[in-house]
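Please, does this match?
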Amino acid sequence: MAAPFLLITGDNPPERQLQEAKALHDWLGEDPDNLGRNVFQGAETDPDTLLMALTPSLFAAKSAVVVRGAQECPVAVVEVLTASVPAALESDIAVFVVGEKGPNATTKVGKAFAQMAKKLARDIPCPSPKVQDLPGWVMRVCKERQGRGIEKTAAELLVERAGTTDFRAVGEVLGDLERELEKLSLGLEPGEGITVARVDDMVGDRRPVSLQDLQGALLQRRPAVAVDAWQRLRHEGIPAFLLAQMCFSDFLSAYRLRLAMDRGSRAREAAQSLGINAWVMEKRGLEAAARGRSIERWRKDLLSLCRIEAIEKRGGYPFDYQLDLEFYQLAR
């Protein structure tokens, strides 16, 4: 069998690692200490050492050269690859170029490498799943790599807690999810599945703290979520009186919207006349929130926010649980 030349590229790091390991196993066998295995890391690669690795060795009938972080390779390294790979393949030296993408193809050397790879290499794409497909990806990876199942709701909870894409690309969270699956599998019997309770006990919430989480939970009357959001904001050092001030404007908008709807106005027309942004109206679910409380309840909650602000400024909440109860009551 001719030595393979593979381009393993894409923004899915776990899949790249899996394909790299499979390619090495197929070519060199199961021995992890095989002397013919040479691994280089992108920008840290020394061109002379790489050239030696691409030269036939007296110690191994077969060998393989892996260049990771291909997109970071300096020009000198790409020159060595372009000039040496064809002869290396004829000498039973497999070459695996791994990275988010191949070497920079905008340079003269990069273009020469791309032309050479087009003739000799086989592409193995490793794209990331779409955001909405992450729970399914977790279930598949858990089955394939951990040899066990995971409940669909458990996979969804794992993605929610450890796979947030608020400030990260999808590809950046896949490694975290795979590590969490390994952690969740520790101590389980062979074939035993991963449950929601196990994810809840063992996986911390990595979502970035957000004022919108608190505002949304209060408006949508989700007490447990509201208290969790408040506690996370508190750990970030944001005082309760400031949160009460910020939530007051949302509550006041919903109260005015409810008044207008009770007088016969349509929600969108009322929002427009009150100067409520249409995007905010939809994003915060203000129409549903406005209908979810009576006029009397809105007045009571607005007064509660004012009271929280006043008492907190005077240091009237010596214990954290007192504010937990206040926000819980607001969201009931």
Summary: Residues 148 and 189 are 10 Å apart (CA to CA). The chain has three domains: 5-125, 131-202, 211-331. The longest strand covers residues 93-99.
